[in-house]
Amino acid sequence: MAKVLILGGGFGGVVAAERLAEQLGEEHQITLVSRSRNFIFYPALVRLAFGKCNRDDASFDLRQAMLHRRVNFIEAEVARIDPHDKKVTIAHGEVEGKLPYDYLVFALGRRLATERITGFFEYAHHLLNVDKAIQFGKAISALREGHAVIGQCQGARLPVPVYETAFALARRLEERGERDRVKITIVEPNGRDTTLGDPATIVLNEALVAHNIEIIHNFPIEKVTANSASTKDGHTVDFDLLMMVPPFRGSSAASYMGTTEHDGYIMVDSTLRVVGQEGIYAVGDCVNFDGPKLGHMAVRQGEVASANLAAELAGNAPVSHYSHEMKLVIDDFGSDSIYLHKDMWTDEPGSVRQGRFWSWAKRVHQRYFEFQHF
Ligand SMILES: Cc1cc2nc3c(=O)[nH]c(=O)nc-3n(C[C@H](O)[C@H](O)[C@H](O)COP(=O)(O)OP(=O)(O)OC[C@H]3O[C@@H](n4cnc5c(N)ncnc54)[C@H](O)[C@@H]3O)c2cc1C
What we know:
Distance between the termini: 28 Å
Structural class: alpha/beta
Low-confidence stretches: none
Helix content: 25-40%
Number of strands: 22
Shape: globular
Number of helices: 10
Mean pLDDT: 95
Strand order of the largest sheet: 5-2-1-9-19
Largest sheet: 5 strands, parallel
Oligomer: single chain
Bound molecules: flavin-adenine dinucleotide
Strand content: 25-35%
């Protein structure tokens, strides 16, 4: 009998747990540890902020879903991993304990390094949890005139909600007949976005122009006050409403494993095994692949890692390899919605589609995900 421990109940952890429950015999014990008993469907949070869906559409009962699949669920904070003793230290309230494992799947996502931006915590809105999205929604409703600034901090690696927020705000103001009263600006830390590739950037820029949304490149914000955001070299933008994606870093729980790169992301090979570790896999936002951090990548990595872990447990060689692809929809809530599919490990420019269909497809995908997993 093997003890298989999955850390993190997000996209990567849930899919890995489900697949392992399907693939491993009943003699093996599968346990998932996560700090909350709810799963958050992050791609719905822009729609939640704009009142286009409810809290229940973005948050699902993880504990029940796991128990239905014979996966034990522990609600606790993961503090550290000790790969030598094969134990994970967890804490719940005042209680601390150690969980032994034979195999581990690390899926704790990314850390929000808000401390890197002075004033971020006090003055910037963000969309990185349900309560913050609802709070941002209230600020949107109160905005009647002025300047809305939306963007990513250096290292954020999450462009989708930035563009979606700008489009949703533009449409909301158009509906209210107040578009002329609010200027909308996107700030990007880097130069012209090369992450999405040229074809997508061209289509995206046309959509921004159509919605009268300004974009400023090379604007890495490092300080925020109550009404302005500034860069290290002294450039400042004033705002009445600010929504930023904070810098991302790897999970702090990984730092003791000694297998992380400079930003704290875990180094894995294409089978999703952690480099230099026995019996440990890592999936999702916590791993060191380049480009944006996306849910579908975490899902695919959860599938690959679970297939290889099951093979390893049976004494076989890895059966699956991960190929790093970016698939995303930037929903403009209308006919300018964009779909992009790009292979991240080649120089191919990627394929781009545009139209109202993709807005609909994104909503349908969310329903399908809920139906499949919860
Ligand atoms: C606003 C927003 C919009 C997005 N839009 C899209 C989109 O349109 N398309 C797309 O593909 N992706 C999108 N993403 C990105 C996507 O949500 C992430 O890539 C995905 O959630 C990563 O999955 P994961 O399993 O690695 O991490 P997560 O989903 O973050 O899961 C990590 C889990 O680990 C738990 N955890 C973390 N630390 C600890 C700890 N120390 N102890 C115990 N538990 C812990 C967390 O509570 C969570 O349950 C969006 C993200 C955001 C925030």
